[in-house]
Amino acid sequence: MIIRDFGMSTVSLAGPLDAKLVAIRRAGFSQAMISASEIVGHPGGVAAGVCAVRHSGVAVTGLETLRNFEGLDGRLHDYKVDVAKSMLDLCQDLGGRLLIVEASTSSHANTNADEIIRDLRTLAILAIPKGVRIAFKGVSWSRTASNFAAAGEFVLRANCRNLGLAIDAFDIVAAQAPLDDLDAIDPEQIFVVQLSDFTWQTVPSIAENTATKTRFRVFPGEGAHSDELAAFVSRLDVLGYSGVYSFDVYNDDYQQMPPDAVVTRARRAAEWLEETVLRQSLPVPNIECSRRTAQD
Asked: CA–CA separation, 115 vs 120, rounded Å?
């Protein structure tokens, strides 16, 4: 069965790009979010990386990630425009129609709203001849847009049809952001939704006899916040979102597992979401089954 409404990021998998694409396709996924660094770092060169994607049978959900673009001045602004043009060219070469842009974390970024809107509009206009849409993503540590609501306000004010949002469920669930905030977003402005669950792990610190807890991402249904994640997806569905869900999951454990084993977990997550959240044909307690499997 081909899973058409879900894709996954290639950064979730270990190994060479070609093997990742084979594993993604074999698991039944019809699309993947492609990391630009994997194309330019392909052993056969950029052309070989592009060829691998275009002949994989896997459609390109989008290209990730342009960072620290907006709010810069002078030579830094010109430098980032050149970087953006290069990534737009690469996105077009791949047959992709979406570029993920993360809100700036640069200490040089100006937080003036008018300048941020100007830069986003400039980027969207550059993307038009390429047939590429820009998905602006708020991140919690950004200086310009620390959440999806702030990013959505900039997108609304920029008023470009090919400029929309990338929303990451991890940021919303981890911040315990109220789902009511989603009501203010036009679902047609949401170009892609990135999904992951998460759990905690204890990491020994340098100080003797102390440890810290850190979050790490897992697939939906495997972590400690499946109920909240299900509520998030359900809310988007009620609001009328009909776009792509992309699994944005990466952790050290998955980087030590064969790609086929990881994509199997991704497929199980997609089936859980379809059956218990979007189609609601099976009872929610299947979450517990996924959790037990992940713990095993």
From this structure: 9
Q: How many CB atoms neighbour CB 81 within 10 A?
A: 16
Label residue 213 left, alpha or beta by phi (over 0 means left) and psi (-120 to 50 means alpha): beta
Distance, CA of 287 to CA of 118 (rounded, Å): 44
pLDDT at 11 over 50: yes
3-state secondary structure 227-282: HHHHHHHHHHHHHCCCCEEEECCCCCCHHHCCHHHHHHHHHHHHHHHHHHHHCCCC
Q: Which of 256, 292, 267, 284 is nearest to 13 (CA)?
A: 256
The predicted-structure confidence for 113-148, as pLDDT tens digits, reads as follows 999 999 999 999 999 999 999 999 999 999 999 999
- Among residues 74, 187, 70, the alpha carbon closest in space to that of 139 is found at 70
pLDDT single digits (tens) 266-289: 999 999 998 888 864 334 334 444
Q: Taking the CA of residue 202 as centre, how many other CA atoms within 13 Å lie in the half-sphere pointing to its CB? A: 4
Is residue 61 reached through a cis peptide bond, with omega within 30 degrees of 0 on the bond before it? no
Q: Give the predicted TM-score (pTM) of the model.
A: 0.90
**Cα atoms in the 13 Å half-sphere on the side-chain side of 274:** 13
Which residues does residue 82 pair with via DSSP β-bridges, in sequence order?
none
Beta carbons within 8 Å of 36's beta carbon, 6+ residues apart: 63, 64, 65, 87, 90
